[in-house]
Amino acid sequence: MEIKRTQTVVYTARQRRFRQLWNTKLLYLLLLPGLLHLLIFKLAPLFGLVIAFQDYNTFQGIRGSSWVGLENFKVFIQDPYFLVLLKNTLLLAIYNLVFGFPVPIIFALFLNEVRSAMVKRFTQSLSFFPYFISSAVTVSIVYTFLSPQTGLVNRLLDGIGIEPVFFMAEAGWFRSLYVSLNVWHSFGYGSIIYLAAIAGIDPHQYEAAEIDGATRWQKMFFITLPSLSNIIVTMFILNIGSFLSVDLDKVLLMYNPSVYETADVIQSFVYRQAFASQGFPNYSFGAAVGLFQSIVAMLLVVSANKISKKYSESRLF
Fold first, then answer.
1. Is residue 256 part of a domain?
2. Which parts of the chain span the membrane according to its record (predicted)?
3. Residue 22 sits in which domain range?
4. Residue pLDDT, tens place only, 174-193
5. What percent of the chain is helix, strand and coil (3-state, nearest 5)?
6. 200 in any annotated domain
7. Does residue 117 lie within any of the structural domains?
8. pTM of the model
9. Residue 254 and residue 243: Cα distance in Å, rounded?
10. Coil, strand or helix: which one is 67?
11. Burial 250-273 (b: 16+ CB within 10 A, else e)
């Protein structure tokens, strides 16, 4: 009798789960394209990383190519050019984090203080617009403004008696131009997350602060900013995950042999190695360098997450 009752309970539970799945079938259908994209374009290609440990030959394939173990990684790390690539990548990543990470936060804080709804919407739309412009167009705009012959910047310099500067061909200007362009291109989009978090703050806190005589600056620093601390830490961890990743499209469009000493980064080096214009592409070496970069990025994410877990309540896992 007890066994039959248990079987009935299990059967009823299964019926309930099946009914819940059936009632939400349309939601799962909406989820299906995203899952397929994840499996086909994100997870399945991971099996191809085995070529990083091979002397891969396109004619022999993965099964026919010889196994070399960590040889490709050793060649990359022992290469004298490795330190140049690492230095350029780290400097671009640090500058991008130092200047690019706080700008959306500051912009969201000040935009929240704008009283006119029309001005606020117009400013937000204007700041968001560059995100929809392709990297090729933004770099073309930079070239137009900085052209040594017809560029607006050099015309202004010429007007005050300074010789025209070919900014795009001087190695010393590459990092400043890249970081500035990257910040302008993405700060409006990044501020949306913080504006959404600000919208969720309890307005009674501001009312109580006004009763106590708090100024707008005090409300910003003692209410708005602390309320954003969790999302700021979370976004910082996500930024650390892409610390060694630069916008390859912008780098390839902006750099040339005259600026290699500051512009050549790990990703552009991988691109040149994996898709060499002369001779046979070295896919194994390119895959090994890319895997090395991914492993370092993963270690940075884990470290940042542990630090945030120790000193705050925000963490990813």
1. yes
2. 26-53, 90-114, 126-146, 183-201, 221-244, 283-302
3. 2-50
4. 888 888 888 888 888 888 88
5. 80, 0, 20
6. yes
7. yes
8. 0.75
9. 20
10. strand
11. bbbbbbeeebbebbbbbbbbbbeb
